[in-house]
Structures are given as structure tokens and as C-alpha cells.
Amino acid sequence: MIEVLIAIALCAFGLLGLFGVQARATTTLFETSQRTQALVLVEDMVARLNANRARAGDYVTAGLIGEGPVDDCSPATGAALDLCEWGNLLRGTAELRGTAAVGAMLSARGCITRAAGSSDRYLVAVAWSGTTSTGAPASTCGQGTPAFPDETLRRAVTSSVCIALLLDPAVPASTPRC
């Protein structure tokens, strides 16, 4: 009888451990899915920048992209259209559940900046909220904004884009190139 009780207790502890592993795996899967979505969105904007190289400077924004309600992109053209559509993708409009946009990461925001000291290198970043605390990312996209009140939950992926210009008379020769 005691042997049966001990066997039941061991099975119970084993099942508790299995449930813990399953919960952790679910959290990890969700975090991985969000990172994958962020990488797809970063690569989408990188492709848009590469397709409109002559106007690459028009993509640089001072604030976060993807804040607020869904934008109507129909009157926009060029870089403004690309930024509007990308902002809507960050808001999750690529997939709807009822009327709710669920096709993006939690609190997704985008940033496009010109790399410091460069005339033709741009940084495209996507930041979002994770579900478990980690170290803060090196990217400053979204840092210190109300969208990300806890730096240990902010996640970010960044891609550097070099727009190769063979000759640009407006840029002094001493300015570093890609």
C-alpha cells in the first residue's frame, strides 16, 4: 500500500513538472512567433526602401510608426504610402478576428532612422512588448515611450540598409559611406 502511495506521489510530481515545461514551451512559442512577425515586417520595409532608393531620405521619421488608429492610405503616394501601409501592418491589419486587428505583435511600433555619421545608411527597427522579462534591447526604437513602460519587456529587431550611391555631389567626400 505504501509503495502505491509513493508511486502516485512520484507520478504527481512528474506531471507537475511536465505541466511547467508545457507552460514554458507555450510562452517561448509565442515569443518566437512575435519575433518572426517582427522580422517579416522589418524585411518588408527594407524592400520598400530598396525599391525607392532615390527617395530613401523621405522614409526617415521622427516618431514611432504604428501608433494610434488605422490610417486611410488611399491619398498617399511614394514614401508616404509605404509608411502608411507599414504602419497599418504594425497595427495588425493584415489579419482580422471579427473587427479586431490581430495580425501583429503586442504594442508593435516601427522606427526608421539615418545611421549616425552616414549619408546613405538607414536603420529599420520594429519594437514590441514581450511577455517575460529579459534584458533591454540595444535598439532605442520605442525606448522611453508610454508604449513600453517596462524596458525588460521591450523587444526589438533592427536591420541596416545601405543605399549605394555611386556619386552624390551634395555629400562631402569626408562623409563616411556604406
Salient structural properties:
178 residues, alpha+beta, 3-stranded antiparallel beta sheet, 16% strand, 2 helices
Strand numbers in spatial order across the main sheet: 3-4-5
Distance between the termini: 76 Å
The amount of beta strand, in percent, is 15-25%
State the secondary-structure class: alpha+beta
Uncertain spans, ≥5 residues at pLDDT below 50? Answer: none
Overall tally of structural domains:
1
Helix percent band? 25-40%
Counting DSSP H or I runs of 4 or more residues, the number of helices is 2
In round numbers, the mean pLDDT is 87
Total beta strands: 5
Largest sheet: 3 strands, antiparallel
- SSE string: HHEEEEE
Mass-distribution shape: elongated
Radius of gyration: 22 Å
Give an overview of the whole structure.
The protein is 35% helix and 16% strand. The chain contains two helices and five strands, in the order ααβββββ. A three-stranded antiparallel beta sheet has the order 3-4-5, with helices on one face. A hairpin with a 2-residue loop joins strand 1 (96-97) and strand 2. The longest helix is centred in the N-terminal third of the chain and has 50 residues, at 2-51.
